[in-house]
Amino acid sequence: MSLLDRPREVMRRDRVFDFMMPNPLDAARLDTRHGPILYLEDITVSFDGFKALDALTLYIDVGELRCIIGPNGAGKSTMMDVITGRIRPDHGQAWLGQRLDLLRMQETDISRAGIGRKFQKPTVFPEHRVVENLELAMAGPRGVWSTLRQHLDGEARDHIDSVLTEIGLESAGHSRAGQLSHGQKQWLEIGMLLMQNPQVLLVDEPVAGMTHQEMDRTGELLQRLAGRHSVVVVEHDMDFVRSIARTVTVLHQGAVLAEGSMDAIQADPRVVEVYLGE
Amino acid sequence: MASPQTSATRVIPERPWRRLLHGDMGGRILLGTLAVLIVVIPILNQGVSPSSPFHVSDYTVNLLGRYLCFALLALALDLVWGYAGILSLGHGAFFALGGYAMGMYLMRQIGDRGVYGDPILPDFMVFLGWEQLPWFWYGFDQFWFAALMVLLVPGVFGFIFGWLAFRSRVTGVYLSIISQAMTYALMLAFFRNEMGFGGNNGLTDFKDILGFSLADPQTRLALFVASAVALGLAYLLCRSVVRSRAGRVVRAVRDAEPRTRSLGYRTDHYKLWIWTLSAMLAGLAGALYVPQVGIINPSEFSPLNSIEVVVWVAVGGRGTLYGAALGGALVNYAQTLLTAMIAELWLFALGGLFVAVTLFFPRGLVGLLKRREDRS
Ligand SMILES: Nc1ncnc2c1ncn2[C@@H]1O[C@H](COP(=O)(O)OP(=O)(O)O)[C@@H](O)[C@H]1O
Ligand SMILES: [Mg+2]
């Protein structure tokens, strides 16, 4: 790196003048006129020379429900880490809409800009009631003084109630989150994402450990959410994927192996080989 | 059944200051008891003849006043331990700092009535051969200034300690240990004569407060009432804090700090804020305590004192506020009883109590009562 790179980086116009930076909080300004809301182009991530993602290119449309499948180690979680800013790729581009460069944003800014991620393991606040969990996740000021003075106005209550209904926990609103079943905790966690009005929902293995009934309800929930949000689901369970997927992307060795409808994917000999060869 | 649309968020009160005691039976009992004490004790002390069995002696009034100060200290600790999950083993330091601030005021009220008769310098300074009042003693001849310092000194000290600790993400047992080290260091510092706080002997021989003699039964009564009012108001303050959204964030920090951080909350700010508030309340307790016992010395900083406060809170019921206050008063009452009988045994009794609470009733007395309630 040349000595000049650093001063140049510091003096870049969009860094120096705040008003040149796109405001990540202003989700309404997301420019999605060109269709996709999430652009990943040529993303490469290597860990000690091993390429977890290898020139991955992927577009997610507005309101789409996309399932990502792939054998263990294919790079699915790494891809989510890149989108949420936990990992910086070696190469490539990642944009939210046309204007927000994810690779230049902090994790918290990315989440505020409208990308919500549900981790594999549910992490709700067990001692808080379900509604309080949702309240904690609600978008809004997070400083001590504001939360000290803030009370739930009608709008916030409505929001909490609508999310509660959406995730099917309206009768459990008063229960402590720790008393919920495993499946209900997963839904609550999705609800906590929804409280932040995300544009894009990243959902990692939502039905792991669920009963069949819970799986069905989770599938219905994710399908309801698609349309208003873009939903990206990473899942192992093929039956589940078949039940909800419109478009499926198969990752293999850090790159897209195939993309299309579930039937087309399953007929693809390369996909069959990858899964059988595992 | 009510429609879920209206019932779901009902548990979160719209205006916490109105529904502060909503569903808080323990808190109502506490405040009710305090209100009754404020009315009844003065009558039984002043209005009933000393020969009557209903008479409450000056000594008892004084004792009750002290218990209320301990209850307030326990309340302050419960705020950080019960709600933010920060186990402080150094809260006695804030109590003592508030006590010293009050002691300095009382010291300067003595004026020329001291042994050496110096109109400005307290006796111990004359004894040490000092010619001038140290700068940090300025202003303490004014009650309003001392009252401010009672809150500010522990507050600022707590803020700095908390800022350093929470910003560097010191948590759990490490925080407990450094809080203990803090109070120990303060004790050693205050033992030194050069510090200017009376060294070993501390501050004592107080004469009056706001012009009223401390030896007067009425003054003691007034101090008792002031302690009761302070405890009641502090309870309401703590209750409004834990019922607020900020209070729910603080509990979230206690249960899952990284998750709370990932939701975008600056958890260190929340901890710092509640820690500072708690330090100020502990200082207030100390300031009310000192005129009632007539002395403040470095032994108040002793690490053992801070550990005792933890026991009070655990015995009363951690994370309930009123339970902590109950524990603070009850354990000290038990101490008075036991010490009168068998002084040497008290520390063993206290240790045994703590072990028993931890093993058999982890939710304290309040938990025991609640369990009864649940069963019936
Ligand atoms: N922090 C890391 N350090 C080294 N290797 C990693 C790291 N994270 C992931 N990997 C490797 O990258 C590959 C892709 O991992 P991951 O994205 O978790 O796969 P998936 O979620 O599809 O199962 C795996 O081979 C994994 O071992
Ligand atoms: Mg994974």
Key structural traits:
heterodimer, A: 278 residues, alpha/beta, Rossmann fold, six-stranded mixed β-sheet, four-stranded antiparallel β-sheet, 10 strands, B: 376 residues, mainly alpha, two-stranded antiparallel sheet, 15 helices, 2% strand, disordered N terminus, binds adenosine-5'-diphosphate, binds magnesium ion
Please write out the topology:
The complex is a heterodimer of chains A (278) and B (376).
Chain A: H1 5-11, H2 13-16, E1 36-47, E2 50-61, E3 65-69, H3 76-83, E4 91-96, E5 100-101, H4 107-113, E6 115-118, H5 130-137, H6 144-149, H7 154-166, H8 182-194, E7 200-204, H9 212-225, E8 230-234, H10 238-244, E9 247-252, E10 255-260, H11 262-267, H12 269-276
Parallel strand pairs in A: 3-8, 3-9, 6-7, 7-8
Antiparallel strand pairs in A: 1-2, 1-4, 4-5, 9-10
Helix pairs in contact in A: 5-8
Chain B: H1 4-7, H2 25-47, H3 58-83, H4 91-110, H5 123-127, H6 143-167, H7 172-191, E1 203-204, E2 208-209, E3 212-213, H8 217-243, H9 245-255, H10 257-262, H11 267-293, E4 295-296, H12 303-316, H13 322-341, H14 346-360, H15 364-375
Antiparallel strand pairs in B: 1-4, 2-3
Helix pairs in contact in B: 2-8, 3-8, 3-11, 3-12, 3-13, 4-6, 4-11, 6-11, 8-9, 8-11, 9-11, 12-13, 12-14
